[in-house]
């Protein structure tokens, strides 16, 4: 079944207007999800809002937004007042500038979307914008009201399509100096730096996201499967970690190990081969969960 568009509107490139649609590119919907249940009855627990002072339940119609101006002092905003603050939308991704792809700092990346033509008559205009960006090795910066907020979007070509990534605003990015201010000013050189460069060379590979696996998700899938089958999984023992006291010796040992390994391979390919059965285990757990008795499904 074709995915459902999250947003439909128009991409405006000068005087060229192209109907487009946004589709979610990254999603957590395939992760195993849990409900909170009562251990004694197996029934789901219902979340309820209560007044922090009186302890009385507060109905949905009486719940409003509040901005704290002092301790326990709030400015109340009615739903219609909040709605009035939402920018008016003309459903247009208006391109404001074009920037070289090499200058885009991915620190500002928020969430990626696939940007596709919204109808067949838009194919030519879409291909024109895509190919022009490819030729110039550029990305388009556009703004639009998306999901109730004004957002800045970076649009770049990828294969036959384009990716639209919402960007964080400048005020949302914390200054790097806050995190790096306590780093000592050191210049590493000589044998120590040469060894580190050698280790990097022996681990050279290609980025292949399919070779990396969510080990937590796989472990949870196996746990669910074991519970359904009535098996017990023993808690794993924490590995013994030795404290590194001699950085140079640690580098030498790492360089020696790297030299013994095979020639560089595609990053993650060996891992994928070893963990393929675990990934299949997740599918098995999901299938087993569907067939489990009602008493088991409640707990899931």
TrEMBL record:
Question: What function does this protein fulfil?
Answer: With LigD forms a non-homologous end joining (NHEJ) DNA repair enzyme, which repairs dsDNA breaks with reduced fidelity. Binds linear dsDNA with 5'- and 3'- overhangs but not closed circular dsDNA nor ssDNA. Recruits and stimulates the ligase activity of LigD.
Family membership noted in the UniProt record:
Belongs to the prokaryotic Ku family.
- Its name, as the record gives it, is Non-homologous end joining protein Ku
- Please indicate which superkingdom the organism of origin belongs to: Bacteria
Residue ranges occupied by any Ku domain in the UniProt entry: 55-185
Recorded GO molecular functions are: double-stranded DNA binding
User: Cross-referenced HAMAP family, in alphabetical order?
Assistant: Prokaryotic_Ku (MF_01875)
UniProt keyword list: DNA damage, DNA recombination, DNA repair, DNA-binding
Gene Ontology biological process terms in this record: DNA recombination; double-strand break repair via nonhomologous end joining
PANTHER family associated with the record: NON-HOMOLOGOUS END JOINING PROTEIN KU
Subunit structure as annotated in this protein's UniProt entry: Homodimer. Interacts with LigD.
Locations of Low complexity compositional bias?
270-292
Positions of region (Disordered) = 250-300
